[in-house]
Specification:
3 helices, mainly alpha, 0% strand
C-alpha cells in the first residue's frame, strides 16, 4: 500500500467556476447560520419573557402583602425624630488612643494568680 501526495501544480489549480461555486456556497452557509442564530435568540428571548411573566404573576400576593405591611412605616427619606431630646445639645470630647482587647478567661486567670500572691483583688 502506497500513499501518494498530490501537490497542486499550475495545471491542477481550481478554475473560476469552482471558486465561484465555493464563494456562493460559503455565502449561503453564512446566511443559514445567521438565520438559525436569530431564531435561537428569539426563542431564548420568548422563554425569558414568559418566565419573568410567570414569576411576576406568582408573586403578586407576596407583593401585595409587602405593600400592606409597609403602609405602617414612615416613607423613605423621612427623618425619624423624637421629642425626648428636643433642645438638648450634647457636647463631648473624642478619646484618642489604642484599644486593648482582653480575653476574659486570661483576665480571670491573672486575677486568681494575683489573689494567691496576696495582692488585693478588684
Amino acid at each position: 500500500m502506497q500513499i501518494k501526495f498530490i501537490s497542486p501544480t499550475a495545471g491542477n489549480s481550481p478554475g473560476l467556476l469552482r471558486k465561484t461555486v465555493a464563494v456562493i456556497t460559503m455565502v449561503v452557509l453564512a446566511g443559514v447560520v445567521l438565520m438559525f442564530s436569530a431564531i435561537l435568540l428569539a426563542v431564548i428571548l420568548i422563554i425569558v419573557v414568559f418566565g419573568g411573566t410567570y414569576l411576576w404573576w406568582k408573586t403578586r400576593a407576596l407583593r401585595k402583602l409587602m405593600k400592606e405591611q409597609m403602609q405602617g412605616f414612615p416613607p423613605q427619606g423621612a427623618a425619624m425624630r423624637s421629642d425626648a431630646f428636643v433642645g438638648e445639645v450634647f457636647e463631648g470630647e473624642v478619646i484618642e488612643g489604642e484599644a486593648i482587647l482582653v480575653d476574659e478567661s486570661s483576665a480571670k486567670e491573672i486575677s486568681i494568680v494575683l489573689d494567691r500572691a496576696g495582692h488585693p483583688s478588684r
